[in-house]
Amino acid sequence: MTLKNALKTSIRGLRTNRSRSLLTILGIVIGITAIILVMSLGQGAQDLILSQIQSMGSKTIAISPGRHPTSISDSLSTFTDSLKNKDVEDLQKKSNVPHLARIMPIVFGSETATRGNKIHQTTIFGVNNFFAEIYDIYPDEGRLFTDEEIASKAEVVIIGSKTKEELFDSDEEALGQKIKVKNQSLRVIGVLPKKGQFSFISFDDALIVPHTTAQQYIFGIKYYNRIVVEADSEQNVDRTTEDIKTTLRNNHNITDPDKDDFFIETQAQAMEMVSTILNVLTLFLAAIAAISLVVGGVGIMNIMLVSVTERTHEIGLRKAIGATEKDILVQFLLEAILLTLMGGIIGIILGAGFSFLASLILTKFAGLNWGFAFPISAALLGLGVSAGVGLIFGIYPARQASRKDPIEALRYE
Amino acid sequence: MNNLIEVKNLEKIYRNDSVETPALQGVSFDIQKGEFVAIMGPSGSGKSTLLHILGFLDHPSKGDYFFEGKTINDYSKIELAQIRNKKLGFIFQMFNLLPRTSVLENVKLPLIYSDIKESLWNELSLKAIEQVGLSHRINYETNQLSGGEKQRVAIARALVNNPSVIFADEPTGNLDSKSGGQIMEIIEALNDQGQTIILITHETYTAEYSQRIIRLKDGEIESDEKVDERRHTHKDGFVK
Predict the structure, then answer these.
(1) Could you tell me the pLDDT band of residue A198, with boundaries at 50, 70 and 90?
(2) What whole-number distance in Å separates Cα of residue A234 and Cα of residue A267?
(3) CB pair distance less than 8 Å for B113 and A322
(4) Residues B154-173, buried b or exposed e (16+ Cβ, 10 A)?
(5) Which of A69, A187, A281, A328 could form a disulfide with A75 if both were Cys (CB 3.0 to 4.6 A apart)?
(6) Is residue B200 part of a domain?
């Protein structure tokens, strides 16, 4: 029998039991839907986060105090005071770091902002104007800081859109008004547009002040929580990283690199790390979803066995009129594979559909710029896996069918 | 020698948990091309066993079976399947049609296992359906047909590959006497056109359509004689 006719025979067999066929593949449909959904959402999340990291510029280098965290207890040492004002000054010298284009020291912390009887829990960022460029967020009312304001530790603040909503009435003008943080009055000079969650930072409910002001009047510290450096070109990122290390080790009297009290991360490293984590997470979730495929496969085997018994007469007849064992085996195996493939295709369509819906919802309600991603690899995997499930769980019932003695099969009542 | 089938000292013993049940005990006969032979006997007489061996569905325990001059003992399972496909046609008591499948597709079934070109399948099937007078039912599904019509589909299916011999196993067993008579008339007409027929039955009135009756009892041939005179009347249907 040709493959074409074998296919026709199997399709006819499935059509004869249409509703049972549909119920049988439900397990496979659910399994493949889950896998496609997880993989598609994983891809979407990765695209989103990577594009955000990338938008911060591939030339940026972040310096953090403490040791590179390799365990949870290590991460506590992030809050050390090793990055000082002198470090920032020395890094700016051409003789130390020739390819440094810009530098931004950062201090941050959580504080309560008040205005009259209105209270808002907020994150305060002490930065310079470079932040607007890195995060691509500019005030849509008012302005950024002046150099004078930064140098003189001016009591000025740029507020996020959420902060404005919380501290001001909707029709109230915020510019020029004063808000209070830790008994320190700050004058609003700018309001940021609504931007939503930006990778790990949200500026919507933030207060942004000059780093000098934040150090002196708000947190009362003499060190920085982070220093961000931009190299003059992408090619010079590695060179600049080395220059920064040398300068800081000199300043901190460190000879053994293992005893560094700071660590440096570039955007390239960050992207690599994030995509590794997300890939592992996606695969892990897909593997869990795959368990349902095993359950679905057992269901297919069960129904195929029932079907073989039920169709004993048909098998006997086919053998009597000239079907070989192989013909019968192929017929029932193809039925199983067609069933699971059909489940796979439905699952892929459903999975992609749900993922598309999720991207719409996330974009609309969570304010994320979430793009719908449908990895072709996921679709191919779905098809391959579902056909594989059919093959594995169909082979036993198909063998049972092919080995039926035509005499017994014809006699069977 | 014009023997289509030649059986010599055929024996079949069923072994089950060291209990031996003899079903056939030395059966010998010849069947010529174009003959219409009825094999009769009560249940347990061995007629089904004999049919299975003659129909290449089972091997004898002892003895020889020559089909078109060749012994069947040497054939493999696959070769037996091929011979069944090319040389034999089967008609069963239970019809054994595929449910929810059209008449045409049912009749076509043996062809998909054959090496006949696919472009000829429809033509051959339609011809066989015409021979049993069901041309007006081609696209009906089998479950929409009456018992007699179902058996006619089965006859068309047995005919479609132009077999050397058609085996009919109690073809009227599930039919009322009127449609039973019609089926027997179709079978008789096929024989008139030269088709060899081997009919298994326990009913004398069905057997009497044949030219020769072999009676089995307890696995042995009790009698083997020609039917001198046809006792039924053609147009008036079935006469008991």
Answers:
(1) low
(2) 11
(3) yes
(4) bbbbbbbbebbbbbbbbbbb
(5) A69
(6) yes
Minimum CA–CA partner of A12 in chain B: B101
Q: Which of chain A's residues have a Cβ under 8 Å away from the Cβ of B104?
A: none
**What's the alpha-carbon Rg for chain B, to the nearest Å?**
18
**Which segments of A135-187 does DSSP mark as H helices, in order?**
147-151, 161-167
Q: Is the pLDDT assigned to residue A195 strictly greater than 90?
A: no
Nearest C-alpha in B relative to A322: B85
Whether residues B105 and A12 touch (CB distance < 8 A) is answered with yes
- Residue B235 inside a domain? The answer is no
Predicted confidence at residue B233, as pLDDT, reads 47
Residue A44 predicted with pLDDT over 90? no
How far apart CA A97 and CA A120 sit, in angstroms, is 41
> Which residues on B lie below 8 Å from A313 (Cβ)?
94, 96
Q: Determine which of A16, A17, A321 to mutate to test the interface with B (most B C-beta atoms within 10 Å).
A: A321
Residue A204 has pLDDT above 90, yes or no: no
In B, residues 99-118, which contact A (CB 8 Å cutoff)? 99-101, 105, 109-110, 112-114, 118
CA distance A373 to chain B (A): 43
Q: Do A318 and B55 touch (CB under 8 A)?
A: no
Query: A217 and A155 in contact (C-beta within 8 Å)?
Result: yes
Residue type, A39: M
Distances (CA, A) of A293 to A43, A64, A306, A334, A351: 22, 46, 20, 18, 14
Mean pLDDT of chain A, nearest integer = 86
- Give the model confidence (pLDDT) of B89-135 as tens digits: 999 988 899 988 999 999 999 999 999 999 999 999 999 999 999 99
pTM of the shown model: 0.72
Contact B98 A314 (CB under 8 A): yes
The pLDDT assigned to B239 comes to 46
Asked if A321 and B84 come within 8 Å (Cβ–Cβ), the reply is yes
Mean pLDDT confidence for A144-163: 90
| Residue B62 maps to a domain | no
Beta bridge partners of residue A120, listed in sequence order: A113
Per-residue pLDDT tens over the stretch A347-364: 999 999 999 999 888 888
- The ipTM assigned to this model is 0.89
When divided into structural domains, chain B yields a total of 1
Q: What is the pLDDT of residue B154?
A: 94
What values do phi and psi take at B186, rounded to 5? -65, -45
**How far does the CA of residue A318 sit from the closest CA of chain B (Å)?**
8
| Residue A130: both structure tokens together | 């470079």
Q: Give me the CATH number covering residue B137.
A: 3.40.50.300
Do B168 and B187 contact (CB within 8 A), yes or no? yes
Domain hosting residue B178, numbered range: 35-57+77-226
DSSP A234: G
Contacts with A332 (C-beta within 8 Å, 6 or more apart), sequence order: A10, A304, A307, A308, A394, A397, A398, A401, A402
Confirm if A211 and A105 have CB atoms less than 8 A apart.
yes
Asked if the structure places residue B157 within a domain, the reply is yes
